[in-house]
Prior knowledge:
Its EC number is 4.1.1.48. The chain is α/β, with parallel strands linked by helices.
Amino acid sequence: MTRTGTVLDRIVERTSADLAERRRRVPEGALRAQAHEQAPPVPLVPALRADRVSVIAEVKRGSPSRGLFAPEADAAAVAMDYLAGGAAALSVLTDEPFFHGSLKDLAVVARLAHASPGPVPVLRKDFLLDPYQIVEARAHGADAVLLIVAVLDRWQLAELLGVTWELGMEALVEVHDESELATAVEAGARVIGINNRDLRTFTVDLTVSERLAPLVPADRVVVAESGIHSVADVERLARAGIDAILVGEALMMAPDRRAIVQALGSVEVVRCRGS
Length: 275
Ligand SMILES: O=P(O)(O)OC[C@@H](O)[C@@H](O)c1c[nH]c2ccccc12
């Protein structure tokens, strides 16, 4: 699998191996105690329902497809810019081997986001395969987690959603095609992320969101993810009925991060999805 599989296969394999090691170092009980010391999670769903497109701004230093594009970025400084630009939520990549993130980044960003006037929810972005990682997210201040349908079977998805909700958090459930979307909707996902990037080939195509968003029931929140760079991109996605966008690279690379968050978040939501 390592030699013939996709990058996604390698990431999942590596994540499982690292997980075993982390579990030995910090037993789940200790992590749960740390999770219970946190202030209650900031709700994600209301943060993403607004008249303008909600921006989930991501702290991201690099990726397997794009390399290391912001290796020196200071997570706290980036988060401050995002908050000043009016980001509705923040996302922090915590995967180390492939995305150069960390749980430390998550904790730093969560502290800032929660201290801002009108606390902003923070999402842990990683390849979550096991309940341990959800508890770990909460213990480091996350209000929400990413669950990727492509790497989970439907029982795992149900279990991870259950653990997320039990801890008072929310899940962004990521899909890339019609069948994954059906799985997410049936599992009861309240926030559905449509990834424009195919995690197997890394091809980015905004028409994926345009095709799938109209199929999402109106009572769920839809987030278009990846490959979003301009106000024109957001306008196009808004016409397809999305509520929010998740943007990483374009924000990290912008000379004025505050201004671009503000600009992308100025587009009006178009309520055109049926039930
Ligand atoms: O940097 P971009 O193209 O704006 O993409 C952000 C985000 O959507 C992307 O980081 C992402 C979406 N789903 C993921 C799953 C794992 C890791 C990363 C991701």
